[in-house]
Structure formats: structure tokens, C-alpha cells
Design a protein that fits this description.
The structure is a single chain. The chain is 39% helix and 17% strand. It is of the alpha/beta class. The longest helix is centred in the middle third of the chain and has 21 residues. The radius of gyration is 19 Å and the shape is globular.
Amino acid sequence: MGRQVLASLRGRGHEVHAVSRNPSPEVGDRTVTWHANDLLDRRATEAVVQRVAPTHLVHLAWCSEHGVYWESPENECWLAAGLSLLEAFVAAGGRRALLAGTCAEYDWSRAEAPLSETETPLAPRGAYGRAKDSLRRGAEALAARSGLSVAWARLFFLFGPGEHPDRLVASVARAVLSGRTADCTEGRQVRDYLLSTEAAEAVVAVLESGASGAINVGSGIPVSVRELIELVGAAAGGPELLRFGSIPSRADEPPRIVADVDRLGGEVGWQPRRTLEEAVAETVAWWRERAPA
């Protein structure tokens, strides 16, 4: 959702500098200053941060290859890169940082109730969850030493235009739009879904709020996977193409993962503007425009 965060920051009048290995700004878009840089290159990153001297930092970069990132050894590389980036940011006079965490930091065996930043124990899952949790703890330690203000945005289940085509909403939408059957599990597990563009707006709201520590970024609304898939099938015009139960459910699949959004809605003052139906319709429309003729 990096591009969507950029759009939200621009829309709120911020001077924005963005870092990417291969910058590809939209034609005619001069509202963002791009810097070609690999964040895994510590010295090059330090040079960029010193040159820009930013007051605020939004750090979203991480290994994210679909089907690989969960146990990828690259997680440790990104942990080290994140800590180096924060140190460079503080050295350059940075005042406030927001970093992307994950709901996989929580103990999912305690998920009968909404997962709370203050009440739910942590038990990070996979190399991904463990590395993210280590970055959070490192950021908090640096904040205590330096006075840096740090917010940790724990992202829940996002979907939207531009996501990997094999992810759940995208894969079902693409199948139905092309007239193919969409194989699915029974879909009984309950999750917390949020449109990626709305998550980007939430992240910017957290950044601007001054709230510190972990803050869940989700809808707070429990939705079964089956309900979500049914909405996708209907929006794509082929609900009869959905094949529930044709894929076995994983034995270790947590039955319920939903965010407690009291901090996001109260302290930050943000809540979603779109319904789940509207979010799904927007995403399916994006894939429809790209479907083969």
C-alpha cells in the first residue's frame, strides 16, 4: 500500500520524499520527490536520509513475496535494515516515525475476543512475525534513548487494487471474471478485512495524531472468509462459479482474528468510510478493467 500512503500524504499537503529500488512515478506527477535506493544498503540509505533530513518517517518496506515471505530468511535482513534506517533517521534530526507491524505478532490462541494492543499477549508467528516484533522492540528501545516518537501500525487483513494476483480476493475475482470456477475452502474462519486504500489513510491519520506505541489498523468487524468470497463472486457476476469446500482447510488455521480498534477510533479518531461491499466492488472493478478481452 506504499503508493496509496503517498497519495494520502500528498492529499494532506505534506512534502513527500519516497525511496524505492526502481522508482516509477506516474507521468506528470511532480508532487513526490523520488530517490532510487535499496534500503538493504546501509551506507546508501544513511546518505539519502542525511540529504533529505526528514522530520517524519513512514517505513513500510519489507520482503512480501506471496507464498514465500512468511518463513523467508530475508526477514532478518529487513529487521537489520529497519533498525539501521531508524538510527539514520534519528541522527538526521527526525522526530516521528511510523512503522508497519502485523497482527501475526499476537497470540492467536487468545483470539476469541478482539486482539487488543494492551490486553492480548504476544506470540509472534513465523519468521515474519518474529522479525516484525523484534523491529518493534528495537524501535521502542531507540525511542526511549533518543526521545523519538514511534507509532507501530499493526496491520490486519488487507486487500485492494494492485495486490498480488494470487491473493484471496484477487484470485477469486480473476477466476470469476474469466468465467472459471474459483476453488475455495469452506471459509468458516473469521477475519478482519480492510481495503488497502483505507488502511493507507489510517496509517497517515496515525502518523499525524502523535499517538505512540502499537495501534491496530483494521475494521474491527468480524467477517467470515465465506462471506467475503460471496461478495467477490457477486460483484464479479458469477456467484455460481464459487466452489466452497473444494480446497481443504488447514488444520492450524486460527478460527478468528479480529482487531480491537478502540485506539484507532478513539485516540486517533479514524474509522473506515467504505462498507465491505463497496470495498469489494472497487477491487473487482479494478480487476475487470484488466481482464483479458
